[in-house]
Amino acid sequence: MGHCCNHAQEFENNHLKIHWDDVYTKPSEKLGWYEKESTPTINIFKELELPESAHLFVAGAGTSSFVDFLAQNGYYNITVNDISANAIQQLKSRLQDYQSQIRYITEDISNPEKLNNIAPIDFWYDRAVLHFLTEPSEQKTYFDLLKSKIKPNSYVLLAQFNKQSAQKCSALPVHRYDLKEMQEHLGEEFKTINNFDYEYTMPNGDKRQYIYALFQKAGSK
Predict the structure, then answer these.
(1) Are 212 and 157 in contact (CB under 8 A)?
(2) What DSSP string describes 41-95?
(3) pLDDT digit of tens for each residue in the chain (221 aa)?
């Protein structure tokens, strides 16, 4: 039974890799989550005043301009993850002048192997990745990884479709979030620092409703 399930999981993972590699053959500015500047994220991040040595993790980065912002502002301990090798290659090409500051991990975050071995994290950022994990087992794997890697006193910023948003993104179903559900996944160790709803305008003019939520893990006792 387990062997059969493993094959099913492997098939699904390959299907998703193919899907996202195909998505990232398109120009970034045509994608339905493209941001020329990651303004809401940058505003929150700046307030944290993290040192340049902080370990920053960008989950499912795609071709996000937030990675450019971090590298250009002197952060040199950045880990970028995506399931799509195409997306990672585009980031590498665009940010080749900053290659010493960034490590890249091509992997499905809901089925981590290499990600299990990354160093403890000071800031975990996820815009529009978590909501693609629709199965409870995938969500558990994601949050188990997050909780095991975040240092005491460190931060998590989640930006996902909220309960009023579309039920699909990039032709895939999504699990929409509110603050209560995020908090339930994170548990009592994490407290909410900031949260707000944000209306994002897609390149085609359509609107999508996001929830942005910043959490901080409790300090060591």
Answers:
(1) yes
(2) HHHHHHHH---TT--EEEET-TT-HHHHHHHHTT---EEEEES-HHHHHHHHHHT
(3) 454 455 445 545 677 766 655 666 666 565 545 455 568 999 999 999 999 999 999 998 988 899 999 999 999 999 999 999 999 999 999 999 999 999 999 999 999 999 999 999 999 999 989 988 989 999 999 999 999 999 999 999 999 988 777 566 666 778 899 999 999 999 999 999 999 999 878 777 778 889 999 999 998 75
Q: Which residues contact 143 (CB under 8 A, 6 or more apart)?
A: 185, 186
Q: Can you list the domains of the chain with their CATH numbers?
A: 2-217 (3.40.50.150)
Enter the pTM of the model: 0.87
